[in-house]
Protein backbone atom coordinates (compact mmCIF):
# COMPACT_ATOMS: atom_id res chain seq x y z
CA UNK A 1 0.00 0.00 0.00
CA UNK A 2 1.18 3.52 -0.73
CA UNK A 3 2.18 5.83 2.11
CA UNK A 4 -0.45 8.35 1.06
CA UNK A 5 -3.11 5.63 1.21
CA UNK A 6 -2.00 4.57 4.69
CA UNK A 7 -2.36 8.17 5.81
CA UNK A 8 -5.70 8.83 4.12
CA UNK A 9 -7.25 5.68 5.62
CA UNK A 10 -5.85 6.11 9.14
CA UNK A 11 -8.10 7.25 11.98
CA UNK A 12 -5.17 8.24 14.19
CA UNK A 13 -1.43 8.88 14.07
CA UNK A 14 0.51 5.97 12.56
CA UNK A 15 3.84 4.48 13.65
CA UNK A 16 6.81 3.85 11.33
CA UNK A 17 10.55 3.46 11.63
CA UNK A 18 13.78 3.46 9.65
CA UNK A 19 16.14 0.50 9.41
CA UNK A 20 19.88 0.59 8.98
CA UNK A 21 21.06 -2.32 6.77
CA UNK A 22 23.57 -4.67 8.41
CA UNK A 23 27.25 -4.30 7.69
CA UNK A 24 28.70 -6.25 4.79
CA UNK A 25 29.21 -9.87 5.79
CA UNK A 26 26.54 -9.86 8.47
CA UNK A 27 23.28 -11.76 8.04
CA UNK A 28 19.67 -10.64 8.07
CA UNK A 29 19.00 -11.75 11.65
CA UNK A 30 19.83 -8.26 12.91
CA UNK A 31 17.10 -6.88 10.65
CA UNK A 32 14.65 -9.52 11.81
CA UNK A 33 15.42 -8.72 15.44
CA UNK A 34 14.76 -5.00 14.98
CA UNK A 35 11.53 -5.52 13.04
CA UNK A 36 10.20 -8.11 15.47
CA UNK A 37 10.81 -5.84 18.46
CA UNK A 38 8.65 -3.17 16.84
CA UNK A 39 5.89 -5.28 15.26
CA UNK A 40 3.64 -4.89 18.30
CA UNK A 41 3.13 -1.22 17.41
CA UNK A 42 1.69 -2.12 14.00
CA UNK A 43 4.11 -0.14 11.80
CA UNK A 44 2.50 1.31 8.70
CA UNK A 45 5.80 1.10 6.82
CA UNK A 46 9.52 0.57 7.27
CA UNK A 47 12.17 2.76 5.65
CA UNK A 48 15.39 1.04 4.56
CA UNK A 49 18.37 3.37 4.28
CA UNK A 50 21.09 3.21 1.65
CA UNK A 51 24.69 4.26 2.21
CA UNK A 52 26.78 5.08 -0.81
CA UNK A 53 30.08 3.44 -1.59
CA UNK A 54 33.37 4.55 -0.11
CA UNK A 55 36.86 4.45 -1.59
CA UNK A 56 40.05 2.84 -0.38
CA UNK A 57 43.47 3.53 -1.86
CA UNK A 58 46.03 0.74 -1.71
CA UNK A 59 49.67 1.29 -2.48
CA UNK A 60 50.98 -0.84 -5.34
CA UNK A 61 54.50 -1.75 -6.42
CA UNK A 62 56.38 1.38 -7.42
CA UNK A 63 54.37 3.63 -5.11
CA UNK A 64 51.29 3.86 -7.34
CA UNK A 65 47.90 3.94 -5.66
CA UNK A 66 45.02 1.72 -6.70
CA UNK A 67 41.51 2.99 -6.05
CA UNK A 68 39.00 0.39 -4.87
CA UNK A 69 35.29 0.91 -4.34
CA UNK A 70 33.92 -0.49 -1.10
CA UNK A 71 30.27 -1.13 -0.24
CA UNK A 72 29.97 -1.57 3.50
CA UNK A 73 26.28 -2.51 3.56
CA UNK A 74 23.99 -4.58 1.32
CA UNK A 75 21.62 -2.86 -1.09
CA UNK A 76 18.00 -2.14 -0.30
CA UNK A 77 16.24 -4.18 -3.00
CA UNK A 78 16.93 -7.53 -1.35
CA UNK A 79 16.29 -6.21 2.16
CA UNK A 80 12.96 -4.67 1.16
CA UNK A 81 11.87 -7.85 -0.60
CA UNK A 82 12.85 -9.98 2.40
CA UNK A 83 11.00 -7.79 4.92
CA UNK A 84 7.89 -7.51 2.77
CA UNK A 85 7.80 -11.27 2.21
CA UNK A 86 8.42 -12.32 5.82
CA UNK A 87 6.35 -9.73 7.67
CA UNK A 88 3.86 -8.47 5.07
CA UNK A 89 5.05 -4.91 5.73
CA UNK A 90 5.26 -2.06 3.27
CA UNK A 91 8.87 -1.03 2.79
CA UNK A 92 10.31 2.27 1.59
CA UNK A 93 13.79 2.03 0.06
CA UNK A 94 15.99 5.10 -0.07
CA UNK A 95 16.99 6.05 -3.62
CA UNK A 96 20.05 8.31 -3.69
CA UNK A 97 22.07 10.20 -6.26
CA UNK A 98 25.56 9.40 -5.00
CA UNK A 99 27.27 6.42 -6.59
CA UNK A 100 24.58 5.69 -9.19
CA UNK A 101 24.29 6.40 -12.90
CA UNK A 102 20.85 7.15 -14.31
CA UNK A 103 20.77 3.67 -15.83
CA UNK A 104 21.67 2.00 -12.53
CA UNK A 105 18.91 3.99 -10.85
CA UNK A 106 16.45 2.88 -13.50
CA UNK A 107 17.48 -0.75 -13.07
CA UNK A 108 17.07 -0.52 -9.29
CA UNK A 109 13.60 0.96 -9.71
CA UNK A 110 12.66 -1.78 -12.17
CA UNK A 111 13.77 -4.40 -9.63
CA UNK A 112 11.80 -2.71 -6.84
CA UNK A 113 8.70 -2.51 -9.01
CA UNK A 114 9.14 -6.19 -9.92
CA UNK A 115 9.18 -7.32 -6.26
CA UNK A 116 6.11 -5.21 -5.45
CA UNK A 117 7.59 -2.22 -3.64
CA UNK A 118 5.20 0.73 -4.07
CA UNK A 119 7.04 3.53 -2.23
CA UNK A 120 10.41 5.21 -2.52
CA UNK A 121 12.14 7.97 -0.58
CA UNK A 122 14.23 10.06 -2.97
CA UNK A 123 17.34 11.75 -1.55
CA UNK A 124 20.48 13.34 -2.83
CA UNK A 125 22.60 11.54 -0.24
CA UNK A 126 25.79 12.52 1.52
CA UNK A 127 29.22 13.22 0.05
CA UNK A 128 31.84 10.51 0.22
CA UNK A 129 33.52 10.47 3.60
CA UNK A 130 36.58 12.70 3.44
CA UNK A 131 35.16 14.82 0.63
CA UNK A 132 33.62 18.04 1.86
CA UNK A 133 31.38 18.63 -1.14
CA UNK A 134 28.84 16.29 -2.74
CA UNK A 135 29.72 15.23 -6.25
CA UNK A 136 27.33 13.19 -8.39
CA UNK A 137 28.36 10.64 -10.98
CA UNK A 138 29.20 11.98 -14.44
CA UNK A 139 26.28 10.01 -15.88
CA UNK A 140 24.08 10.32 -12.79
CA UNK A 141 22.18 12.96 -10.85
CA UNK A 142 23.51 15.70 -8.59
CA UNK A 143 20.23 16.82 -7.04
CA UNK A 144 17.25 15.03 -5.49
CA UNK A 145 14.86 16.90 -7.76
CA UNK A 146 16.43 15.17 -10.76
CA UNK A 147 15.78 11.80 -9.12
CA UNK A 148 12.18 12.83 -8.45
CA UNK A 149 11.78 13.55 -12.15
CA UNK A 150 13.31 10.21 -13.18
CA UNK A 151 10.90 8.29 -10.92
CA UNK A 152 7.99 10.43 -12.10
CA UNK A 153 8.96 9.76 -15.72
CA UNK A 154 8.94 6.01 -15.08
CA UNK A 155 5.51 6.39 -13.47
CA UNK A 156 4.42 7.80 -16.83
CA UNK A 157 6.05 4.92 -18.71
CA UNK A 158 9.01 7.03 -19.87
CA UNK A 159 12.33 5.16 -19.67
CA UNK A 160 15.86 6.29 -20.56
CA UNK A 161 15.74 4.30 -23.80
CA UNK A 162 13.13 6.17 -25.83
CA UNK A 163 12.94 3.21 -28.25
CA UNK A 164 12.06 0.71 -25.53
CA UNK A 165 8.97 -1.25 -26.56
CA UNK A 166 6.25 -2.86 -24.46
CA UNK A 167 7.38 -0.98 -21.35
CA UNK A 168 5.05 -0.70 -18.37
CA UNK A 169 4.58 2.41 -16.28
CA UNK A 170 5.64 2.05 -12.66
CA UNK A 171 3.42 3.35 -9.87
CA UNK A 172 5.73 4.52 -7.09
CA UNK A 173 4.57 6.85 -4.33
CA UNK A 174 7.43 9.35 -4.12
CA UNK A 175 8.65 10.73 -0.82
CA UNK A 176 11.25 13.45 -0.25
CA UNK A 177 13.09 14.88 2.75
CA UNK A 178 12.18 18.07 4.55
CA UNK A 179 14.41 20.09 6.88
CA UNK A 180 12.62 22.01 9.67
CA UNK A 181 15.86 23.85 10.43
CA UNK A 182 16.69 24.07 6.68
CA UNK A 183 19.18 21.99 4.71
CA UNK A 184 22.64 23.00 5.83
CA UNK A 185 23.65 23.92 2.28
CA UNK A 186 20.62 26.14 1.65
CA UNK A 187 21.22 29.90 2.03
CA UNK A 188 17.99 30.24 4.03
CA UNK A 189 14.74 28.44 4.78
CA UNK A 190 12.75 30.30 2.12
CA UNK A 191 15.16 29.11 -0.58
CA UNK A 192 14.97 25.58 0.80
CA UNK A 193 11.16 25.68 0.69
CA UNK A 194 11.12 26.89 -2.92
CA UNK A 195 13.10 23.82 -3.96
CA UNK A 196 10.88 21.60 -1.83
CA UNK A 197 7.83 23.01 -3.60
CA UNK A 198 9.48 22.26 -6.95
CA UNK A 199 9.85 18.62 -5.89
CA UNK A 200 6.17 18.51 -5.00
CA UNK A 201 5.21 20.06 -8.34
CA UNK A 202 7.38 17.47 -10.09
CA UNK A 203 5.84 14.45 -8.37
CA UNK A 204 6.65 14.19 -4.64
CA UNK A 205 3.63 12.99 -2.64
CA UNK A 206 4.81 13.07 0.96
CA UNK A 207 7.64 14.53 3.07
CA UNK A 208 9.59 12.97 5.93
CA UNK A 209 11.53 15.48 8.01
CA UNK A 210 15.06 15.40 9.26
CA UNK A 211 15.23 14.65 12.99
CA UNK A 212 14.52 17.58 15.30
CA UNK A 213 14.45 17.97 19.07
CA UNK A 214 12.22 21.03 19.37
CA UNK A 215 8.64 20.41 18.22
CA UNK A 216 8.12 24.10 17.54
CA UNK A 217 10.64 23.77 14.70
CA UNK A 218 8.36 21.15 13.11
CA UNK A 219 5.16 23.12 13.67
CA UNK A 220 6.75 26.27 12.20
CA UNK A 221 8.07 24.26 9.25
CA UNK A 222 4.63 22.84 8.47
CA UNK A 223 3.11 26.30 8.71
CA UNK A 224 5.70 27.76 6.33
CA UNK A 225 5.22 24.85 3.91
CA UNK A 226 1.49 25.53 3.80
CA UNK A 227 2.18 29.23 3.20
CA UNK A 228 4.31 28.20 0.20
CA UNK A 229 1.48 26.06 -1.19
CA UNK A 230 2.97 22.71 -0.13
CA UNK A 231 -0.09 20.69 0.89
CA UNK A 232 1.17 17.08 0.91
CA UNK A 233 1.55 15.12 4.21
CA UNK A 234 4.58 16.11 6.30
CA UNK A 235 5.77 13.26 8.55
CA UNK A 236 7.91 14.22 11.56
CA UNK A 237 11.12 12.24 12.04
CA UNK A 238 12.24 11.56 15.63
CA UNK A 239 15.48 10.23 17.07
CA UNK A 240 15.88 9.42 20.77
CA UNK A 241 19.17 10.72 22.12
CA UNK A 242 20.90 7.83 23.91
CA UNK A 243 24.49 8.89 24.61
CA UNK A 244 26.13 12.06 25.94
CA UNK A 245 28.39 12.17 22.89
CA UNK A 246 25.32 12.73 20.68
CA UNK A 247 24.98 16.22 22.14
CA UNK A 248 27.77 17.18 19.76
CA UNK A 249 27.76 14.43 17.11
CA UNK A 250 24.11 14.86 16.08
CA UNK A 251 24.36 18.64 15.56
CA UNK A 252 27.66 18.12 13.72
CA UNK A 253 26.41 15.35 11.42
CA UNK A 254 22.76 16.35 10.96
CA UNK A 255 22.90 20.13 11.52
CA UNK A 256 20.17 20.22 14.17
CA UNK A 257 19.80 22.30 17.31
CA UNK A 258 19.41 20.91 20.83
CA UNK A 259 17.02 22.70 23.23
CA UNK A 260 18.63 24.05 26.40
CA UNK A 261 16.45 21.90 28.64
CA UNK A 262 17.46 18.69 26.87
CA UNK A 263 21.14 19.66 26.99
CA UNK A 264 20.92 20.30 30.74
CA UNK A 265 19.10 17.00 31.33
CA UNK A 266 21.79 15.04 29.52
CA UNK A 267 24.74 16.97 30.96
CA UNK A 268 23.42 16.45 34.50
CA UNK A 269 22.98 12.71 33.98
CA UNK A 270 25.54 10.81 36.05
CA UNK A 271 25.55 7.48 34.20
CA UNK A 272 25.08 6.07 30.71
CA UNK A 273 21.71 4.66 31.73
CA UNK A 274 20.63 8.04 33.10
CA UNK A 275 21.59 9.69 29.80
CA UNK A 276 19.49 7.18 27.88
CA UNK A 277 16.56 7.65 30.26
CA UNK A 278 16.74 11.42 29.78
CA UNK A 279 16.85 11.11 25.98
CA UNK A 280 13.98 8.62 25.86
CA UNK A 281 11.88 10.75 28.24
CA UNK A 282 12.43 13.79 26.02
CA UNK A 283 11.43 11.86 22.89
CA UNK A 284 8.31 10.53 24.65
CA UNK A 285 7.35 14.11 25.45
CA UNK A 286 7.93 15.11 21.82
CA UNK A 287 5.95 12.16 20.48
CA UNK A 288 2.97 12.72 22.78
CA UNK A 289 2.73 16.40 21.82
CA UNK A 290 2.99 15.60 18.11
CA UNK A 291 0.41 12.83 18.37
CA UNK A 292 -1.95 15.20 20.20
CA UNK A 293 -1.52 17.57 17.25
CA UNK A 294 -2.71 14.77 14.93
CA UNK A 295 0.43 14.44 12.84
CA UNK A 296 -0.05 11.76 10.16
CA UNK A 297 2.79 9.47 11.27
CA UNK A 298 5.46 9.37 13.95
CA UNK A 299 8.58 8.15 12.16
CA UNK A 300 11.53 6.96 14.26
CA UNK A 301 15.19 6.81 13.26
CA UNK A 302 16.34 3.66 15.06
CA UNK A 303 19.99 3.71 13.92
CA UNK A 304 19.86 -0.08 14.21
CA UNK A 305 18.76 -0.03 17.88
CA UNK A 306 15.14 -0.95 18.49
CA UNK A 307 14.98 -0.83 22.30
CA UNK A 308 14.71 2.97 22.77
CA UNK A 309 12.09 3.25 20.01
CA UNK A 310 10.09 0.38 21.51
CA UNK A 311 10.15 2.08 24.91
CA UNK A 312 8.90 5.33 23.40
CA UNK A 313 6.22 3.67 21.27
CA UNK A 314 4.96 1.72 24.28
CA UNK A 315 4.43 5.00 26.15
CA UNK A 316 2.77 6.78 23.21
CA UNK A 317 0.70 4.29 21.20
Structure summary, number of beta strands: 10
Average pLDDT, rounded to a whole number, is 90
Helix content: 40-55%
Regions with pLDDT < 50 over 5+ consecutive residues? none
| Count of helical regions | 11
Structure description:
The protein has 317 residues and is α/β, with parallel strands linked by helices. It has one domain (3-316): TIM Barrel (Alpha-Beta Barrel), CATH 3.20.20. Helix content is 41%, strand content 17%. The protein contains eleven helices and ten strands. It has helices at residues 3-9, 29-38, 76-87, 102-114, 144-155, 189-202, 215-227, 246-254, 260-267, 272-292, 306-316; strands at 14-19, 45-48, 54-59, 65-70, 91-96, 119-123, 173-178, 206-211, 234-238, 297-301. It has an eight-stranded parallel β-barrel, surrounded by six helices. Helix 2 (29-38) runs parallel beside helix 11, helix 5 packs parallel to helix 6 (189-202) and helix 9 runs antiparallel to helix 10. It starts with a helix and ends with a helix. The model has no long low-confidence stretch (mean pLDDT 90).
